[in-house]
């Protein structure tokens, strides 16, 4: 499995280099990003891959000094259950 960053999204590829998931965001000004969508192919669910995609967004926000607005229901759940993401959550 490999995650690559593209414009506005992180893309998850399987070992055959097929796209099997993504997490998309949009920038809200220079200091915020909105996570608006997380998806993993049903055949690959249950492997914590969506969590890894959201984590990539958290790390990107940390690197760039941004805050995140998690509009995507899955990302919101991740922020609700992982207090360690609080440093990048827009309060």
Q: What's the CATH topology name?
A: Aminopeptidase
State the end-to-end CA separation: 33 Å
What top-tier CATH class fits best?
A: Alpha Beta
What radius of gyration results from the CA coordinates?
13 Å
Major sheet size, sense and barrel closure: 5 strands, mixed
- Tell me the helix content: 25-40%
Report strand order across the widest sheet: 1-2-3-4-5
The CATH superfamily turns out to be Gcn5-related N-acetyltransferase (GNAT)
What fraction of residues sit in β-strands?
Answer: 35-45%
Q: What's the number of extended β-strand segments?
A: 5
Q: What is the residue-mean pLDDT, rounded to a whole number?
A: 97
| Secondary-structure element series | EEEEHEH
Q: What is the molecular shape? A: globular
Task: Briefly note the structural class of the backbone.
Answer: alpha+beta
Second rung of CATH, namely the architecture:
3-Layer(aba) Sandwich
- DSSP helix count? 2
Task: Please give the domain count.
Answer: 1
Task: List low-pLDDT spans.
Answer: none
Task: Based on the model shown, name its key terms.
91 residues, Gcn5-rel_NAT, five-stranded mixed β-sheet, 27% helix, alpha+beta, acyltransferase activity, transferring groups other than amino-acyl groups, transferase, GNAT family N-acetyltransferase, Aminopeptidase, single chain, globular
């Amino acid at each position: 499995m490999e995650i690559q960053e593209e414009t506005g999204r992180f893309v998850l590829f399987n070992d055959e280099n097929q796209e099997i998931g993504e997490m998309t965001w949009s920038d809200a000004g220079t200091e915020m990003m909105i996570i608006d969508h997380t998806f993993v192919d049903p055949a690959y669910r249950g492997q914590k891959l969506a969590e890894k995609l959201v984590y990539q967004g958290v790390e990107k926000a940390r690197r760039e000094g941004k805050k995140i607005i998690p509009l995507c229901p899955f990302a919101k759940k991740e922020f609700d259950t992982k207090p360690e993401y609080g440093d990048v959550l827009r309060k």
